[in-house]
Amino acid sequence: MILFWALAVLLIVSAVFTVMQKSPVHSVVGLLINFVILATLYLTLNAEFIFVIQIVVYSGAILILFVFVIALLSSGVGPFPEGPNRLPRIVVPAAIVILAAFGFLIYGLARAPLGVLPAHISTSTSGEVGQANVFGSVADFGSALFSTHLLPFEITAFILMVAVIGVVMLAGDAAPDRTRHRPKRRPRKREPIVKANR
Amino acid sequence: MATTFLALWLLPFAGAIALWAFGPSLKRWAAFVGSATILISFALTLTLATDAFGKLGERIDLGTWMPGFSFGLWLDPLSLLWTLVITGVGGLIHVYSIGYMWNDRAIARFFAYMNFFVFAMLTLVLSDNFVGLLVGWGLVGLSSYFLIGFWFFKPAAVAAARKAFVINVVGDVGLMLGIFVLFAATHSIRYFDVFAKASTLPTETVLLACVAIFIACAAKSAQLPLQTWLPDAMEGPTPVSALIHAATMVTAGVYLIARCAPLWDVSPEARALVGTIGALTALTGAILGLAQWDIKRILAYSTMSQIGYMIMGVGVGAYQAGIFHFFTHAFFKAQLFLGAGIIIHALHDEQDVRKMGGLGKKMPFAFWAMAIGTLSIIGFPGLSGFFSKDAVIYGTLERGYPLLYAIAIVTAGITAYYMCRMLFVAFFGTYRGDVADAALGMPARPPARKSHDEESGHAPAWLMQAPVALLMIGSVFAGWLWLGGRWSGYFSDDFVAKPESAIVNFIPEFTSTLLVLAFVALGVAIAYRRYGSFDATSAASERLKRESLRMPAALTRALYFDDAIEFLFVRPARAIGRGFMRVVDPKLLDAAVLDVVWLVGWLGREARAMQTGLVRSYALVLVLGAAAFLAYFAVLGAPR
Amino acid sequence: MPVDISYYVILSAVLFFIGVAGVILRRNPLIVLMSIELIFNAANLALVAFAREWSNNAGHIFAFLVITVAAAEAAIGLAIVVVVFRRSKNVDVDEVAGLRG
């Protein structure tokens, strides 16, 4: 319990830190801490595979991606130049709306009983961490992924491919100018559809 | 028999339609076609007017629309007389018009309008119900508008046509109100039903109906105070003035009162009203006739005056006398107008008598036509006017209206004066066409615009002279019908109720006749001394100039009636129109529409504020939507 | 003595709205994208918590898929940021207001 509270506080602090920093690099660091804490929380929830994936993919790949882009965009070492604030007085309405949404969410959750999901119960059992066939273990996860949820898995592969192609198309080198070989055609003078009234 | 009846009614209408449709291709033949239809109608009417024609006449049923609304045609002695005059005198005038309008480019249109008028007038007199009467009434007013404004390139003609029509509409409203009152009281529009119940109705209702109906008569027959349109109506071609504004349309009021005699018999107040206004109009017409120098206007005012006599006659209850005066008046007034038309035509559209003179030698036929007409109208013994005028005048005395009697006699004298003055000035002495306008006391006037094409050949003279000659015969001899004989039955009063008021003989009839003749002779003598005698004619120019310049303004301004109407009605109406144009239209109506336009624009501008283009504001709206969503589920609970 | 799930859910909600605040209030596009990652993670936390609650693997699978898609989305988002702000002086989300009207 103490562990949970400690982790929770750290989580929130690091999230706020991330959002509030002026320099994106500081924000990346804050986010890194956030992800690690989150991974630990997953571990407390017996989600071993997710714990690993969180660290490897999220902290390891995505954040590095962010750092690379910061490097691409920065004109120096200082904070990024920003234009004038176009919505100067947005803080109060935003705060109100966010707090309202949060409040309604909590209220709704408090009222609604958290029923049991009457779906497939995994074949795993509770047991020690690290054991196969135990709920949350890698083996358990893997067997579910490749049997019941095979289709989404394949589709994610597709999604990733699309993402890669998209990134290359978007931010890659400009396509060569293929219009140079086409002979220039002057547009034909066309009759106006409606004759102007002289 | 029914077919003859329908034919004589519809033939002019067919003629009008045919001439409207084929007029341009028929050109001058249209005139002959147009005249033929009317003459055929006349012939058909004659065939119906046999001895076997009973008192109740013939009826044709044209169908029933709703209970109480049945339409039909009714030919009884009253409507038969009117029909004979309309088709007979009308036919003669049509023939005359062939010659008069010979060179006019729109001759076909003219005859189409004339035929349409005859049809409308026949509808008016032949209907056996009030609604048919109303239809005819309105159509006659419309025809008058068409015909007065026939030469529509003359602004004066257009204005006159408009004026006539607007004043007529006032009358139409009166007629409608009267019909409403009668229908509400009797639940029928047929004369037969209404008059049968007339004596049982409360006198206030009948008085109301009579007053309303009389407004219509006053408008149509140019009686006070709705008489201002008649002099202006002389802007139309002379045959129009002859037919519509002398012989027939203006007598529709007389017809209506005679037709509604059972109503008038119930209400003595209505009688007094009608009689008084008739007498006053007669007097006013005569007085204003003193100030006129345009030959057609002289005749117009004399028409107003004579119709005043007719109205007075039927108003006081002397129906036979009033109707007889209508009959004779149709002859001599048409004759006077057509004769004037001959003169005007010959003098190339000169209408002012001051510029005439000596025409007696130059145009003897016209002179005799006008002379006989004048003598008839003033009541020269033996001619038709003498009998009819005398009957009317004595009728007022008989029925106990001595004041009206006095007015009538004085009017007769004045009529004699100005009609003889016209005769003397135009036909005696020497021709003054070359004398300058100012030397005759005339105001300067712009050169007249030709209403006919240049003389590209003339009509045969007999086309214009024969009708006038026939009318002359009527003017002279029609009076003798009064004295009895086969035709006098038409003037018996069997089909109207007997008057209740006692017939009083203050003075015997012979004495009354002498009294009238005395006034008439006085008028003739004064006119002769001033214009007719040898000394007078040689100094005619100076006399004319003197009399023109000394004419009181009140008379030349027609007793300020036009000015009063302008002040009381035209100016407020224009002011209201201007007020609407300046205030209501822009501030209320336009403002309402423009406010909607502004509202739409405002909504658009406000909605535009949402499109900031900024991602952050869109994100905020997203969260707002999410909050609403969550609120919904929080409050209502997630679905089970 | 496992922690009651409601704590995890509330924690997830708090994280989520911190991310939302970051999206609305920050103008640097990179920080906005990082806030979006925070949001994804909050959702993942909720998913894993409920997976444990109901002993159902599907939560884990779903979280795994979320991570994958988040990665793809981050990549593309960053590519867009690079393209849009390659040559502009200000790196500001408010400058990209072409849909204003």
Summary, kept brief:
The complex is a heterotrimer of chains A (198), B (640) and C (101). Helices cover 71% and strands 2% of the residues of chain B. With 640 residues, chain B is an all-alpha fold.
Q: Would you mind describing this structure in some detail?
A:
The complex is a heterotrimer of chains A (198), B (640) and C (101). Helices cover 60% and strands 0% of the residues of chain A. Chain A has 6 helices and no strands. Chain A has 198 residues and is mainly α. Among the domains of chain A are: 1-75, NADH-ubiquinone/plastoquinone oxidoreductase chain 6, subunit NuoJ (Four Helix Bundle (Hemerythrin (Met), subunit A)), CATH 1.20.120; 135-170. Chain A has helices at residues 2-20, 24-44, 48-73, 91-111, 138-147, 150-171. The longest helix of chain A has 26 residues, at 48-73. In chain A, α1 runs antiparallel to α2 and α2 (24-44) packs antiparallel against α3 (48-73). Among the domains of chain B are: 314-442 and 460-556, no CATH class; 558-609; 614-640. With 640 residues, chain B is mainly alpha-helical. Residues 485-502 of chain B have low confidence and may be disordered. The longest helix of chain B has 48 residues, at 561-608. Chain B is globular and about 120 Å long. Chain C is mainly alpha-helical. Chain C has a single domain, classed as Helix Hairpins. Helices cover 73% and strands 0% of the residues of chain C. Chain C has 3 helices and no strands. Chain C has helices spanning 5-25, 29-54, 58-84. Chain C is elongated, with a radius of gyration of 17 Å. The mean pLDDT of chain C is 89.
